[in-house]
Amino acid sequence: MSFYDEIKRTGWAEIEKEINGRSDADVQAALGAVRPGGVDLNHFMSLLSPAADRYLEETAGHAHRITRQRFGNTISLFAPLYVSNFCNNSCAYCGFNSKNPVRRLALTPKQARAEGEFIHRMGFRHVLLVSGEARQVATLDYFIEITGMLRPLFSSIAVEIYPMGVEEYRALIAGGVDGLTVFQETYSERAYERFHLGGKKRDFQWRIETPDRGGEAGFRRIGLGALLGLENWRVEGFYMGLHAKHLMRKYWKSQVSISFPRLRPAAGSFEVPHEVSDKDFVQLLVALRLFLPDTGFTLSTREPAELRDHLIPLGITSMSAGSKTDPGGYTHPQPEGAEAQFEISDDRDPETVADVIRQKGYEPVWKDWDEALS
Amino acid sequence: MEEALIIAGRRFRSRLLMGTGKFSSAEVMKRAIESSGAEIVTVALRRVELENPGDSILNAIDRTKYLLLPNTSGARDAEEAVRLARLARAAGCEPWIKLEVTPDPRYLLPDPVETLKAAEILVKDGFVVLPYIQADPILAKRLEDAGTATVMPLGSPIGSNRGIKTRDAIEIIIEGATVPVVVDAGLGAPSHAAEALEMGADAALVNTAIAVARDPVAMAAAFKKGVEAGREAFLAGLGGSRREAEASSPLTGFLR
């Protein structure tokens, strides 16, 4: 059974109503039931509820302790490497939208290698290849060739590219890719249709079953995420938790992680329909931590420096730093950054971020994987 | 009688082995190791760059003072574990390897089939193999037969700090072992480590409980004492409790 079959059994509205109906007593019961292994689905719903926002400090304390016990005093660091911003999709919120008149660029494997060398010099050993969806430009062989060029530089190579089939994923893995990240954007099928206006990405089921295909192909790491701001974050959080559990049960050898990309107000012309405040963001993070004690949580440079620093002790286990989100951006910085996928909020260099991590009492980890493992 | 832990012919005064993960800095790790008195320190190969002279973890471990025991954490099958072990040896590590084959990234429980397979290959290849295993007495014997230098049964899942939940099985392993038994994983307090040694385990390996303590250096010292107390109690001969009552006037006394 894929996750699509699983979510078909529940309705968005029904879950929303259930979460919104939770009382103070429910939240207290949930907090009383916290064990090292976390809380169950029922208590998780209470922790996502509006009633739980009065218990944020207590929930955060649990999240802090559970994360430290499981992951220790460490934060892993990685950098994205944008290889191509060609895209056939029209996603209402995205800078790579095919309708946007931006300059398109696909790095040659040699250019990608140069970007990789730059990232390697900054200290990173984990890299994430990112690309828009344009099979006519960025083919499977293209990604395999780039992976081959980067393999000697990095101990872990993950991809955040358009969804592929199981056989294609197997070929990527054989080529040296160990991780797959794919954001669902929103778990509401209705909202999904509203924001995805053209291209292959319109197919909700194909998208939501992508992590299943990745698990079947044997990726060692699978990353999920919802684009926060498209729909009610409480319900998105519920489905993210469910999705992670589904994958962990089914592909028990894969490490699941969750990212928290958030749409920021006033970023471009897209109006954020369900703005997520910092407080909401923290509640989502800590509630998910209590439901998923073993899941890695990733934070990108979309978030401002100050907030990122505060989130470090609340359940985050991995961060990007010094990111460029336009192809070629490391070696050939653009003065405007107009072709970037999203606005970088935390533009500090990786060493500065690492220093902050140290000041917070954590060890920045640049390498936590090995080529011999993939 | 010399009171030493002997593994593969090598003598160690300390019966506490330390892991190096989860510390807030290489400096804290270094001081905790010092304070623990440990002489064997295990390092995840996935975390270090063996060929990088600036590697912060490797630089914090003085290899003239400690035996650096590389481990295969992250390996999902025998093939990956063997590959990692060979890379470590090729990069100049001593041919000692803590064998961890943990296909499940959540509880990091060891795969018995792949562990045995990897142990057989590595022993033939000249490695001193210290396998991390489920507390399974038969598996422990099979590994011994394969030529491993120790067996390292878990007390409870790695990082759980839950203590020795596998006590009965570990007792059977200790009873039957001809190689040192090192209780590895799950020891959350010095009393747990003491318990392992009291039971007759030859040593204990600790990481999380020290690394995530408020004061890791002080906690390392506490574990040192726990291990020492447990060992002394074992040697002194604990009265212990028995499964069956022992009549104070023996039932068979009339036979004499």
Overview of the structural elements:
The complex is a heterodimer of chains A (374) and B (256). With 374 residues, chain A is of the alpha/beta class. Helices cover 40% and strands 13% of the residues of chain A. Chain A has 15 helices and 11 strands. Chain A has helices at 3-8, 12-20, 24-32, 41-48, 56-71, 109-121, 140-150, 166-174, 189-195, 204-208, 210-217, 233-250, 278-291, 305-311, 350-359; strands spanning 74-84, 90-91, 126-131, 156-160, 179-181, 196-198, 221-225, 255-259, 296-299, 318-320, 363-365. In chain A, strands 1-3-4-5-7-8-9-10 form an 8-stranded parallel barrel, surrounded by 4 helices. In chain A, helix 4 (41-48) runs antiparallel to helix 12 (233-250) and helix 8 crosses helix 11. The two termini of chain A are 27 Å apart. The mean pLDDT of chain A is 91. Chain B has 256 residues and is an alpha/beta fold. Chain B has a single domain, classed as TIM Barrel (Alpha-Beta Barrel), CATH 3.20.20.70. In chain B, 38% of the residues lie in helices and 15% in strands. Chain B contains 9 helices and 10 strands. Chain B has helices at residues 26-36, 56-60, 78-90, 112-124, 137-146, 167-176, 190-198, 208-211, 216-236; strands at residues 5-7, 10-12, 16-19, 40-44, 67-71, 96-99, 128-133, 152-153, 182-184, 203-206. In chain B, helix 5 packs parallel to helix 6 and helix 7 runs parallel beside helix 9 (216-236). Chain B is globular, with a radius of gyration of 19 Å. The interface between A and B is medium-sized, with 28 and 29 residues.
